[in-house]
Amino acid sequence: MDITHANGAVRKYSRRSRQHAEGPAAILAIGTANPSGTIVPQHEFTDQFFRVSNSDHLADLKEKLKRICNKTGIEKRHFHLTEEVLLAHPEFLDRELPSLDARIDMVATAVPKLAESAALKAIAEWGRPATDITHLVFSTYSGCRAPSADLELATLLKLRPMVSRTILSLHGCYGGGRALQLAKELAENNRGARVLVACAEITLVCFAGPDGSNLIGHALFGDGAGVAIVGAGPFAGGERPLFEMVSATQTTIPRTEHALGMQVAGGGIDFHLAIQVPSLIGQNVEQCLLGAFRAALGDDAGDDVAWDDMFWAVHPGGRPILDNIEAVLKLGPKKLAASRNVLREYGNMSGATIVFVLDDLRRRREEEGEFPEWGALLAFGPGITIETIVTPTLQQPWCVKTHTPAEGTSTTTSFRFALVTFNNGTSSQGHDGRELTSQINLGVE
Fold this sequence. Notes:
The protein is of the alpha+beta class. It has helices at about 40-50, 60-70, 85-90, 100-125, 150-155, 175-190, 215-220, 275-295, 320-330, 335-345, 355-370; strands at about 1-5, 10, 20-35, 40, 75-80, 135-140, 165-170, 195-200, 225-235, 245, 245-250, 260-265, 270-275, 310-315, 375-380, 385-390, 400-405, 410-415, 430, 435. The strands form 7 sheets. It has a 6-stranded mixed beta sheet, sandwiched between helices. A 4-stranded mixed beta sheet has the order 11-16-15-14, sandwiched between helices. The longest helix is centred in the N-terminal third of the chain and has 27 residues, at about 100-125. The chain is globular and about 75 Å long. Belongs to the thiolase-like superfamily. Chalcone/stilbene synthases family. One of its GO terms (molecular function) is acyltransferase activity, transferring groups other than amino-acyl groups. This is Chalcone synthase.
């Protein structure tokens, strides 16, 4: 179309619709990594922690941490921090001593290197060169400088200088969900975009000796990196959508900003986690889910939802959080199996954890064959903020490739997309004009 500028010049522009992708964004590949520094079985953690922190004389705190660890549902965790580093930096044990600069110097290299390990796995699975990445979204709380981990990762992966980078800092445990939502928007609004989402955390920045306020954090958190590549149609040959993202919402629970948070201080990053967090999430999670499904389906989505008919990718912020969600949504004991397995094997790796859950979930889907038609991703963090993504299984009619050989040309690819209604006797039309209905009960009358 022709556009006349203020100076009278007339230029031709393609229509904006040509800039949009075909259909919803999808996760096309996943990679995960953990540091090789230290692997600590949970039943040994308390003794080891109190030994290296010279705190065995704090017998009451030690017994309290043992009780907490026994209830976490965690079997082992990975850490970048080693005893050798602690011997060289005894100031890491005392929050009153300045140590932030030394911590940041260490993680400035370690965080992007850990993310690189996960990214190389994701890129290999994706099957296209790293130079085809158009956008990079990096979430981490383990860095407080600029240029940050996003630029270092782009350099390590040899991404193009024109790659569009975004750093998400101090989002904590909802960082993975936020990064995926941002990647969805980028992919759907920039035709041909391929977004590398990286989440990497190293707890060295918040490590300290035991006191009455930090025991839960010491019992839960571990180190890890998760990477996902996100794109929307048209898909290139060999690209395989794993999880589509048809709707994404963010909700902040009012008046909970002091319940969960992080604070950067001279002695490192301090975590604050109120005991009410699991119940606050449980009380609000269903409304967040309904909001996300209504964003996909319209306001017709009712309140009587059969959540147990779906599959679930839930950030395992802790065993009580999973227990509360399971009870509120009336989920069967196996519905949160992927989340519980990741918690058991790795602990809470903050924003990276949800990528591990998605990786576990896709493996279960491949092994089991049949899978529920619809699912949801949930991540929680400071705010209290809840990220919700509605995702169908990949074998859906709105992500069907149709190869049509054009006479005298090479094969071309087109795609069909439709958002469907749920058990209300009506239907939605896809881009190819076909009418589609879905069978899952989401309470739509």
